[in-house]
Amino acid sequence: MSAKQVTSMSEIIDVIKDGDTIISGGFGLCGIPEKAILALAEKGVKDLTIVSNNCGVDDWGLGLLLKNHQIKKIIASYVGENKLFETQYLNGELEVELSPQGTLAERIRAGGAGIAGFYTPTGFGTEIAEGKEVKEMDGKMYVLEKAIKGDVALVKAWKGDPYGNLIYRQTARNFNPLAATAGKITIAEVEELVDVGELDPNFIHTPSIYVQHIVEGKSYEKRIEKRTVRKKQLN
Questions:
Q1: Is 151 domain-assigned?
Q2: Which of 73, 119, 167, 235 is most open to solvent, judged by the fewest CB atoms within 10 Å of its CB?
Q3: Cβ–Cβ < 8 Å for 206, 157
Q4: pTM
Q5: What contacts 67, CB < 8 A, 6 or more positions away?
Q6: Is 47 within a domain?
Q7: What is the bridge-based pairing of β-strands 48-51 and 117-120?
Q8: Residue 101 near residue 77, CB atoms below 8 Å
Q9: For residue 97, what are the domain limits?
Q10: Mind listing the pLDDT tens digit for each residue in 87-112?
């Protein structure tokens, strides 16, 4: 096995081409591949299909790609934090496929596992089920959902080694481990790159076999979508 470390995101982001399907890890703004998204915005690739839990906010995360009109279609479960998203959708500039959060996670997981699709009761009787195969099993109705695969997966981890073994922290484990398995090419950015052998094998979340390229990032912003503080109670 050879090392996969590259020195900068701009060195490897050229693998992404116009029209590609990109699976982006993270949950809200937590654990998003900040450096990869910035490099994509700078490169200017267009007509992208983005698969992500959400689409960032107006001025950060995947919202930067929306601002540049680089996204043609997005498959997501929550899009309520982005006014630009709403504007582009209502103007017919953006195609949107909404998927329940658990269903979206399982579609990505299935893609990484080589499973073509699965049946779920979630969404039956709603617009989510329109145009999809429905089957009754054990007296309950299920909707057929197809797996999702990406040309490229972009993930953000806490620690990694030059072979591409990854460890995520807390909420960043939502979607990142799944996304890492479902890309033909997976690019991982990490906060800290350690030597081979320093990561405890018992705590590795993404094994190196899923990762083709790994980059150590610096100065992560880690923005918060909505900062809420408790009001001080007066006695």
A1: yes
A2: 235
A3: yes
A4: 0.90
A5: 41, 58, 59, 84
A6: yes
A7: unpaired
A8: yes
A9: 9-117+147-216
A10: 999 999 999 999 999 999 999 999 99
